[in-house]
Each structure stands twice: as structure tokens, then as C-alpha cells.
Design brief:
With 337 residues, the protein is α/β, with parallel strands linked by helices. It folds into 2 domains: 158 residues, Rossmann fold; 164 residues, Dihydrodipicolinate Reductase, domain 2 (2-Layer Sandwich). The chain is 32% helix and 29% strand. The protein contains 11 helices and 16 strands. The strands form 3 sheets. It has a 7-stranded parallel β-sheet, with helices on both faces. A hairpin with a 5-residue loop joins β10 and β11. The longest helix has 16 residues. The protein is globular and about 60 Å long. The protein starts with 5 loop residues before the first strand and ends in a 5-residue tail after the last strand. It comes from Streptomyces yaizuensis.
Length: 337
């Protein structure tokens, strides 16, 4: 394929956007990037560090994003909350792929409807999953040895100092305001849980239990429908990470518990931690960069028009390789077979 136009990264000066841009520069040195933010000086600093990148200011309250009419792009990446959906509509009107990471399960409906109304306009990648879909991909990679999956439980710890800056904290507040209930799949039925049913301890790699709860997150339907597992749950705790308890920088950890049967029909289980010594940001950035690759056809075929989720586009084995390059690792959990 020929060289694409520049990738427009809304929120490209933020932690997730800037780090994703750095990964794209590393993986695809000639790929043009446009760092878009409200502060032009900051955008210019990020673009200057990347090389082969430009900087622009944007206004998310405007349908044209405040960009000149003659500017052309290859994709629009919303590494922030696109509250007016002007980034999405900008992409749709120009037939450009679009990726978003801040629309949680309770607020993806406008994006889904917009995509359905213009199903042939361009691909939309809804990556409002934990760490932009990398946890789902890691779980699917761990599931490869199973013939049948009966139960999936994801248990995540987010350090309160690792929420991703002002935009990330705003996302957490918005999601918690929308609902305090969690979504699980129980006996094959997607069910809302609240109160004691939603509460669960989340155990860290050092054995520390943190109070957590089931949350409404796209990872649950993504994993349930990708594996046909009848029981799926995602529990989430915010607290001090193992790294910080050791006097080190904030760290990242997610426990992935799988139960089912192996190729011969014998019951098996697998428990693994996905960990990163630098917190959630490298994995979130990796999820964004992987999505851009597939949307543009930089790896494999370009995504077709319509609504997509990370696991529908990205090979889990390849995703895990990319995660490992950033310093992520799998470690066994007690009781793993």
C-alpha cells in the first residue's frame, strides 16, 4: 500500500496519546502523525520529539474541530473523551477510520448508533476496554490451550497515582457516576449486579487483598462472546500497587483466571498475572497503536467499514509480543496448573 496521510491523534499530548504516538513512530518510522491538543506549545514539543510529526490545536466543541478545511488525514484517534462526538463525525464525513478509548460500556450507545447509521462510511474501533483492549487480548492468548472455556474472571488493580492524568481521572468519575452496578455474565445471561453481589476482593501478586467490585466494562461482553464462556466477571480495585508498596514507581497488574476443559476433555484451569513495572500507560498506549495498525492496514488488511472491537481485529499472540516489548510479562499465580 502507499504511504497514508497523517494520523490525527486527538489528545496526542496526553499520557495515552503521546505514548501511543511514540510506539507508532517506533513501529512505523515513516508514518506521518499529527499531534492535536488545546495547548499548541505542548503539542509542538511532543511532535518535535517524535520527528515526522506536526502539531495542531483543536476545539472539540466545533464540528470541524477547528482544523483548516484543506487538511487531510488517514485516521482519527480519540485518546480522550470525545464528548460532542465531533471527532467521530469528522471522521465519518471524510470516510476515515476512527478509534476511541474513553467510551465505557455505559456510554458507547451514541457511537454504536452513529456507526449503524453510517455503516458503510468507515471503520469504528470501540476500544474503551481496560487498557484499550490489551487485557482482553492477553486473556484470549491465555485461553488458547482450552477446548472449552467455562469461567473467566479478570481482577485488576489500578494504582490511584496511575489513573492517566486529568483525562483519565475524568473518565473514572464519569463511569462511576453513570452506574455503580457491574455487568457480569452468569449462567450464560448478562446480568447487572449491585451491593454485596458486586463486591469482591482483588488479590495482588504479593498476596495483599484490596477491596474491589465488579464494574460495567466492555471486556465482559467481549470475552464472553469471543469464547462463549457462560460465566465472566471483571473485578476492579483502586489502591496502592505492589510497586509502590516496595518503594518503587507505580506498577500494573491484572489477574486472569480461566476454567474449562482441555483438548482431551479433561478439566483444566489457568491463572496468570499480566504485570508491568511502569503502570498501565504502556499497555494502554500499546492497545491504541495496535488498533491504528489494523485500521490502516499497516499489519494485515485494513479494517472494513462498520463497528469493531479490539479482539475482532487484533491477533492476541501478536498483541502479547508487542506488550512484552514494552516490558509487560506474564507470571504464574498460586494454584496455576
Amino acid at each position: 500500500m502507499g504511504q497514508p496521510e497523517s494520523v490525527l491523534i486527538l489528545g496526542g499530548t496526553g499520557q495515552a496519546g503521546a505514548r501511543a504516538a511514540a510506539l507508532l513512530r517506533q513501529w512505523h518510522p515513516a508514518l506521518p502523525l499529527t499531534i492535536a491538543g488545546r495547548d499548541i506549545d505542548r503539542a509542538q514539543r511532543v511532535a518535535g520529539e517524535l520527528g515526522a510529526a506536526t502539531a495542531v490545536t483543536i476545539d472539540l466543541r466545533r464540528s470541524d474541530l477547528g482544523l483548516p478545511a484543506d487538511r487531510t488525514y488517514s485516521a482519527v484517534i480519540a485518546a480522550l473523551w470525545d464528548d460532542h462526538l465531533h471527532g467521530l463525525r469528522y471522521a465519518q464525513h471524510r470516510g476515515l477510520p476512527y478509534l476511541s478509548i474513553s467510551s465505557g460500556l455505559v456510554d458507547i450507545a451514541p457511537e454504536v448508533v452513529a456507526g449503524a447509521q453510517r455503516a458503510n462510511a468507515a471503520p469504528i474501533l470501540l476500544a474503551g476496554h481496560y487498557c484499550a483492549g490489551t487485557v482482553v487480548l492477553a486473556a484470549l492468548h491465555a485461553a488458547r490451550r482450552f477446548d472449552r472455556i467455562d469461567t473467566i474472571r479478570i481482577s485488576a488493580v489500578l494504582d490511584e497515582l496511575d489513573t492517566g492524568g486529568p483525562a483519565g481521572r475524568a473518565d473514572l468519575r464519569r463511569w462511576s457516576t453513570a452506574t455503580t452496578a457491574g455487568l457480569v455474565r452468569r449462567d450464560g445471561v448478562f446480568t447487572w449486579v449491585a451491593g454485596p453481589d458486586a463486591q469482591a476482593d482483588v488479590r495482588s501478586t504479593d498476596g495483599t487483598d484490596l477491596p474491589g467490585r465488579s464494574i460495567a466494562i466492555p471486556d465482559v461482553p467481549s470475552l464472553a462472546l469471543a469464547t462463549d464462556a457462560p460465566d465472566v466477571r471483571f473485578d476492579f480495585a483502586v489502591g496502592e500497587s505492589v510497586g509502590r508498596r516496595r518503594g518503587e514507581p507505580v506498577s500494573f497488574e491484572v489477574r486472569i483466571d480461566l476454567e474449562g476443559t482441555g483438548r482431551g476433555g479433561a478439566p483444566i484451569s489457568r491463572s496468570r498475572y499480566l504485570v508491568h513495572p511502569a503502570g498501565q500507560r504502556p499497555l494502554t498506549a500499546t492497545g491504541i497503536a495496535l488498533g491504528v495498525e489494523r485500521l490502516l492496514g499497516l499489519r494485515g488488511e485494513a479494517a472494513t467499514p462498520g463497528i469493531h472491537t479490539p479482539e475482532a481485529l487484533i491477533d492476541p499472540a501478536y498483541a502479547v509480543e508487542r506488550m512484552a516489548e514494552t516490558g509487560a510479562a506474564f507470571i504464574g499465580a498460586p494454584g496455576d496448573s
